């Protein structure tokens, strides 16, 4: 729970303060959803989480880049 909000991110790494979100097109097209996503991202950031965000198309078209990004973030967090 962060700032009184219970969030269920797409991927949460318990051992590291890292979150991954995958957004469908409705996240960009709906102003309320977009605002809520920004608030959610800021809430995680204020608690020290690093967040990576992707579109569904990113995962479909560039899965290797997605995996490289996630591994890079986790390597960085482990080195702290």
- Continuous helix count: 4
Gyration radius over CA: 13 Å
Helix share bin = 40-55%
Distance between the termini: 24 Å
Largest sheet descriptor: 3 strands, mixed
Strand order of the largest sheet: 1-2-3
Poorly predicted regions are none
Structural class: alpha+beta
Task: Write down the overall mean pLDDT.
Answer: 92
Proportion in β-strands = 15-25%
Order of helices and strands: EEHHEHH
Task: State the shape.
Answer: flat
- The tally of domains stands at 1
Count of extended strands: 3
Please provide a brief summary of the model:
With 80 residues, the protein is an alpha+beta fold. Helices cover 52% and strands 19% of the residues. It comes from Candidatus Avipropionibacterium avicola.
List the keywords.
alpha+beta, flat, 4 helices, 80 residues, 3 strands, three-stranded mixed sheet
Word description of this protein:
Pfam families: DUF559. InterPro entries: DUF559, Restrct_endonuc-II-like. This is DUF559 domain-containing protein. It comes from Candidatus Avipropionibacterium avicola. The chain is of the alpha+beta class. It has one domain. It contains 4 helices and 3 strands, in the order E-E-H-H-E-H-H. A hairpin with a 4-residue loop joins strand 1 and strand 2. The chain starts with 10 loop residues before the first strand and ends with a helix. The model has no long low-confidence stretch (mean pLDDT 92).
Please outline the helices and strands.
Layout: E1 11-13, E2 18-23, H1 26-29, H2 31-46, E3 50-55, H3 56-61, H4 63-78
């Amino acid at each position: 729970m962060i700032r009184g909000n219970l969030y269920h991110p797409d991927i949460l790494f318990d051992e590291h303060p890292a979150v991954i979100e995958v957004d469908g097109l409705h996240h960009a097209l709906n102003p309320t959803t977009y605002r809520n996503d920004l608030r959610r991202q800021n809430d995680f950031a204020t608690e020290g989480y690093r967040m990576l965000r992707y579109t569904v198309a990113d995962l479909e078209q560039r899965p290797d880049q997605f995996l490289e990004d996630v591994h890079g973030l986790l390597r960085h967090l482990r080195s702290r």
